[in-house]
Automatic annotation (TrEMBL):
Highest taxon in the source lineage: Bacteria
Classification lineage: Bacteria, Pseudomonadati, Pseudomonadota, Gammaproteobacteria, Oceanospirillales
Protein name: YheU family protein
Organism listed in the record: Vreelandella vilamensis
Family recorded in the similarity comment: Belongs to the UPF0270 family.
InterPro entries: UPF0270, YehU-like_sf
């Protein structure tokens, strides 16, 4: 059984996606006071990044955790999207 799966953003309820993106903003230390849109502005920007495939949503089946990651963060775990797809570790 593969440990990680990629979760398409379109498969998540809007509230769930927003909560994941807000947690990502907080974890990354983004300044939510620097724009008039605040957290909503960052969430909208991150949704655009998801559409451009600059971010992924990965679910760890072993730890039962779902995280938003940049591709650089994903690769820092020693993982590559192409390699995982070939090995069947990322759907």
């Amino acid at each position: 059984m593969s440990r990680f799966i990629e979760v398409p953003a379109r498969m998540l309820p809007s509230e769930t996606l927003d909560a994941l993106l807000e947690a990502f903003v907080t974890r990354q230390g983004y300044d939510t006071t620097d724009t008039g849109a605040g957290m909503r502005g960052w969430v909208a920007e991150l949704k655009q990044q998801l559409e451009r495939d600059e971010l992924i949503i990965a679910h760890d089946l072993e730890l039962e955790m779902t995280e938003v990651m940049t591709l650089a963060q994903w690769r820092s775990f020693g993982r590559d999207l192409g390699d995982d797809e070939e090995e069947g570790d990322l759907v």
